[in-house]
Amino acid sequence: MFKTNEYFDGKVKSIAFTSEDGPATIGVMAVGEYEFGTGSVEIMSVVSGSMDIKLPETDTWKTFTAGESFEVAKDVKFGVRITQETSYICLYK
After folding, report:
1. pLDDT tens digits for 46-75?
2. How far is residue 78's CA from residue 58's CA, in Å, rounded to a whole number?
3. Average pLDDT rounded to a whole number, residues 7-28
4. Residue 72 sits in which domain range?
5. What is the CA radius of gyration of the chain?
6. How much is the pLDDT for 60?
7. Which CATH number does the domain housing residue 22 bear?
8. CA distance 80 to 52
9. Rounded-to-integer distance, Cα 52 and Cα 75, Å
10. What value does the mean pLDDT take over residues 26-33?
11. Dihedral angle at the C-alpha atoms of 75, 77, 83, 86, nearest 10 degrees?
12. Structural domains of the chain, count
């Protein structure tokens, strides 16, 4: 059924499920700065709030707000900075 995930002392929580597009998680992030690693290509969509993202090929942060998406390559690390509570959905390819 569903699998729950908790990271960074409970500041990031998600529920894994199988969507019509494949494996996915839907979750929330508290204010903070995080680094995530990928095991597959990930397509992140912001549902509410905003995320500042620093992808591995750049030293600059880019802001994504509700309704916007970005893609992260497989086997990399990327930075996430949250300035307000934010929800997201992530598809794994």
Report:
1. 999 999 999 998 999 999 999 999 999 999
2. 10
3. 96
4. 3-92
5. 12
6. 96
7. 2.60.120.10
8. 6
9. 20
10. 98
11. 10
12. 1
Give the type of residue at 71. Answer: E
Structure tokens, 18? 């199988």
Please classify residue 14 by burial: count the beta carbons closer than 10 Å to its beta carbon, then call 0-12 exposed, 13-18 middle and 19+ buried. buried
**Ranges assigned E (strand) in 1-93:** 3-7, 12-19, 22-29, 32-37, 42-48, 50-54, 62-65, 69-72, 77-82, 86-92
Residue 56 token pair: 């591995």
* pTM value surpassing 0.90: yes
Assess whether pLDDT exceeds 80 at residue 1.
Answer: no
**The two three-digit tokens of residue 20, written as one number:** 């019509």
Lookup: tokens for 88 = 């997201």
80 C-beta neighbours (distance < 10 Å), count: 20
- Looking up tokens 């979750």 gives 27
